[in-house]
Every structure is written in structure tokens, then in C-alpha cells.
Specification:
By secondary structure, the chain is of the alpha+beta class. The chain folds into 3 domains: 147 residues, no CATH class; 38 residues; 173 residues, no CATH class. The protein contains 19 helices and 12 strands. Strands 3-4-5-6 form a 4-stranded antiparallel beta sheet. Strands 7-8-9-10 form a 4-stranded mixed beta sheet. Strands 1-2 form a two-stranded antiparallel sheet. It holds the Pfam family DUF6638.
């Protein structure tokens, strides 16, 4: 992971925490979770408060995600809303955190002046044993506490203020008045500062969970569709009257489901030619073949002429693999006719020709699934499925790792929003990075 760390392709864009009072507040949150205090004077955190340095110190990547449900969080500053989520068991954790930040901005801004917020994203299950446990998660509730108990003090002060207003002669209670003064020094003027979060319950929409090797859950009204390995506990057993189950290698059914629910953008010239996505995938297919044929090839020198020469010398290998010639023919047909009859294409290659419908709320999740089904495209895999990318990266040769890092740095990292918009039509981030 050295190259990824140096290029900030893993644990990039995190917030530096080094001010003593913030470190102390973080430690109080850790203690509240029953965890040891950190001995680090400086560390970095993501949107949820997860720190890779503290995870290393504790020897536990899941220190804020102990059962991989009911995710914990620590908020030191409102600025965390701009950060990515770099370690999570659910693909929609970032979206839920964004909703929480946006719905409770006033309270978060006020509390974090004096305190840190911490707590859990609670749902209806505590441990996931099978698919039914995942499907039981319909909504989540943020259970919020504060390290210095500013929230508790604000609630107490509010009670005393109400008593002062409603109980005759309460103003003569010196002990109560002194207590109010003492509390106000900690909370400030609660008439001006909204210290208590307004919204704590949020819907748990479509998601990917990393349990059992990865489970996709899509929602369409009362109908739920699960896509995963058929060996996952509960597959085709949980609520069969309400849940459709599709095996991860059942390409015809996966495509039919995504297309029939308008989650896919089918191959038409209106977007294919402007995006360059099919040519991008064709190039990725060739680079994948180069790595397979010669893992020690120096791709740093692989300009267009070098690639063309390699392709001429390895025409039989390219033809046997089939992806590059298939995509080149698809580009030619789309340029000539404006579209491709998807029914004339074999099941798996269909995923090479499509992207998630940009207007659909599940666009990130669908692009994640497509990138998992087309793993040779390491750029798309990094954009949408970082967990899968990191696992694949570890299996690459050292030379190809260097090339992967250089490619991502030169392309995606230069302007991530513009890159996502051009290739995938994505105009708005929803808790993704």
C-alpha cells in the first residue's frame, strides 16, 4: 500500500487532528465507547471520525464498527462533512452522515465550539447472521452524546429555564439560579444556540454491505432485490414473496433487473461518443492483457506507439480475450447507427456497453456493481468500489502497481468531478469521493 499512501489514493483528504483540546475530546469519546485512549498527539480522521493511525495503534480496523452494524462516529468539527468515509461496512454510510450533518448543521456548529459529538448509527439489528438481518434494516437512528456532556447540560438548563418561567417564586431559589449560571458558562445562551440535533431518524435506502463477501440490496417500493453469491446464508429463503434473489454470476437476470427498473443507460451515441467510456474500457482491457502477459513490463514507457506495437505482436492473445475487438466493433456500430440492439449481445459483454443512469438515485451503487463485474477496468473500480480495488491491487505485480498509481494520479485525481461527469454522467456527489 506504500504507493497508494504516497499518492493519497488511500486515506487521502483526511482531516489533521493535532490541537490538544481536540485530541482530548476524541479521547473522551473513545473512553465512552470503552476503548483505550490514544497516545498519539497527532492523527487524521474521516467524516465519521475514523482514524487509520488510531486503528493501527489499536490493532483494530473496526474500532468504530465493532459488529459491522450500528456504526459509531466522532464529530470534532463541522468541517468533517467535506471529508470522505474511508472505512465502512455499508456503502450508504457516507450518505447517511451527510444527511445527519445537513439536517443538524446548527446544532453541530454550536456544540463543536465547546465539545465533540459521538454516538452510533443504530438500526434494528446488532449482529448480521444472514441476509434477513440485512433486510431488517429499514431506517437508522443517530444516538448522539457529547464528550463534555454539553448536550446533557443544555437539556438540564432548558429544564431549569422552564421551571423559572412556570413555577411561582422560582426566581428566589438561589441554588437553582447559581446552577443556571454555571451551566450557561458551558452551554452558552441556549436561546440563541440550538444545541440539540433536530433530526435523528433517516431512511436506510439501497446499499451494498461487505458482509458475506458483498451483498447488494435494491429497493423498488415494496419489492426488494438482493444480488450476491448464492452461498450467502438466507439466499432465497428470506421473505421470498417480497424479495427477489439474483446470483452475482447470473448476468442475464442482473442486466434485465437493472434495465427494467431504469437503472441503466443503454448504449446510444448521445452519451457514448461524448463520454469516451467504451474507448476507456477498451484501453483498460489492453493494459490488463499486457500485465497478464508480462507482469514486469515497464508501462511507464507505454505511449500510444508502444501500445500499438504490443497489440500487433499479440493479436492472437487480444482476439482470444475478445474484449478489445468487441468494444471497437461496438464503437463503430454506435457511430454508424446511433445505438446497439442490446438483445443481440451476449449476457456478460452487455455490461461493457452501459453505465448507471445518471438521473437515478442508485447511480453510485449500480456503477459499483458494474465495476465489480468488469474488474479489469481498475480506474472505474477505484472510483466506485474502493474495497474491491484495494483487494485486487494487492494481487498485482510491483511494476503494474506503480503504473496503476501513476494512471489514477494522472487521470482521476486531476479533477475527480469532471472525470466522473465525462465518463459516467455524474453531476453531484452524494457522500462519495
Amino acid at each position: 500500500m506504500k504507493h497508494l499512501l504516497e499518492a493519497e489514493l488511500i486515506y487521502g483528504r483526511l482531516l489533521d487532528v493535532s490541537e490538544p483540546h481536540l485530541v482530548e475530546r476524541y479521547n473522551k469519546a473513545l473512553e465512552a465507547f470503552g476503548l483505550p485512549r490514544t497516545n498519539l498527539a497527532r492523527f487524521s480522521i474521516d467524516m465519521t471520525g475514523f482514524s487509520p493511525e488510531i486503528a493501527d495503534e489499536l490493532g483494530d480496523r473496526d474500532y468504530l464498527d465493532p459488529n459491522r452494524v450500528n456504526r459509531r462516529f466522532i464529530i470534532l468539527t463541522p468541517d468533517q462533512v467535506e471529508l470522505p468515509v474511508v472505512h465502512t461496512s455499508f456503502s450508504n454510510t457516507a450518505a447517511l452522515m451527510h444527511e445527519f450533518f445537513n439536517a443538524n448543521a446548527r446544532a453541530i456548529n454550536a456544540v463543536t465550539i465547546r465539545d465533540a459529538l459521538y454516538g452510533e448509527i443504530e438500526d434494528s439489528v446488532s449482529v448480521v447472521h444472514d441476509i434477513d438481518d440485512l433486510l431488517a434494516i429499514n431506517e437508522v437512528r443517530f444516538r448522539v452524546l457529547s464528550a463534555e456532556d454539553v448536550l446533557g447540560k443544555a437539556a438540564e438548563l432548558r429544564t431549569l429555564v422552564d421551571r423559572l418561567k412556570t413555577v411561582p417564586n422560582a426566581w428566589a431559589d438561589d441554588a437553582m439560579l447559581n446552577r443556571m449560571v454555571e451551566l450557561s458558562k458551558k452551554t452558552g445562551d441556549i436561546r440563541q444556540n440550538a444545541l440539540v440535533p433536530d433530526q435523528l431518524v433517516f431512511r436506510h435506502e439501497a446499499f451494498w454491505a461487505n458482509h458475506f463477501g458483498g451483498v447488494y440490496v435494491f429497493l423498488d417500493g415494496r419489492q426488494t432485490t438482493v444480488i450476491c453469491d448464492p452461498s450467502v446464508p438466507g439466499f432465497r429463503r428470506s421473505r421470498p414473496w417480497q424479495v427477489s434473489y439474483i446470483a452475482l454470476d447470473d448476468y442475464p437476470r442482473i442486466f434485465e433487473f437493472l434495465a427494467s427498473t431504469k437503472r441503466l443507460e443503454l448504449p446510444r451515441a448521445s452519451w457514448v461518443e461524448a463520454s469516451g467510456l467504451l474507448q476507456h474500457r477498451a484501453d483498460m482491457a489492453i493494459l490488463n492483457l499486457v500485465n497478464k502477459a508480462d507482469p514486469r513490463a515497464d508501462l511507464a514507457k507505454a505511449d500510444r506507439i508502444w501500445i500499438q506495437t504490443w497489440m500487433h505482436r499479440n493479436a492472437a492473445l487480444i482476439a482470444e480475450d475478445g474484449i478489445y475487438p468487441f468494444l471497437q466493433e461496438a464503437i463503430r456500430i454506435i457511430s454508424a447507427t446511433g445505438e446497439i440492439r442490446i438483445k443481440d449481445v451476449a449476457p456478460w459483454p452487455r455490461f461493457l456497453l452501459v453505465r448507471a443512469a445518471p438521473a437515478h438515485p442508485d447511480q453510485w451503487l449500480v456503477n459499483r456493481l458494474i465495476s465489480q463485474l468488469t474488474p479489469f477496468d481498475f480506474v472505474s473500480r477505484f472510483v466506485f468500489d474502493k474495497q474491491g480495488f484495494y483487494e485486487s491491487y494487492e494481487k498485482l505485480s510491483e511494476r503494474f502497481r506503480e503504473f496503476v498509481v501513476e494512471t489514477l494520479t494522472r487521470t482521476y485525481l486531476q479533477n475527480k468531478p469532471a472525470f466522473r461527469q465525462r465518463l459516467f454522467g455524474i453531476r453531484e456527489e452524494k457522500g462519495n469521493a
